[in-house]
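Hello, quick one for you while I still have it in my head. No rush at all, and the record is pasted right below.
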Amino acid sequence: MEAYRDQYATLFNNGKKVVVLGISVDADTTLANWARESSFPNLFASDPDQTVAKQYGSADSKMDTRNVFIVGPDGKIVYRMMKFNVLSTDAYSELAKAVASTLKSPGASHH
């Protein structure tokens, strides 16, 4: 998550018309303390039973798996990056392009 934080301005339009939500199996108190201590600009949610993860097909027993979903202004998933490689520069380039494309899509300026 540090890479998302450190590249927040360029990857996520500095939070303008973009919401970043990290969902984890960690307890909400653990996430809140960690986010505060690490100065994360994005939001976190606790999903200890992987209820949300199962609904989006991203439940995995591996703690290091990152799945990235981009949700359009209409609330629908417009892009998926399953098993996002946090060490790959190409993965971040792809994510930045997908976010930019979503921001340029019709209706994006209305939300």
Residues 2-104 form a domain with the Glutaredoxin fold (CATH 3.40.30.10). The beta strands are 21-24, 43-46, 68-71, 77-81.
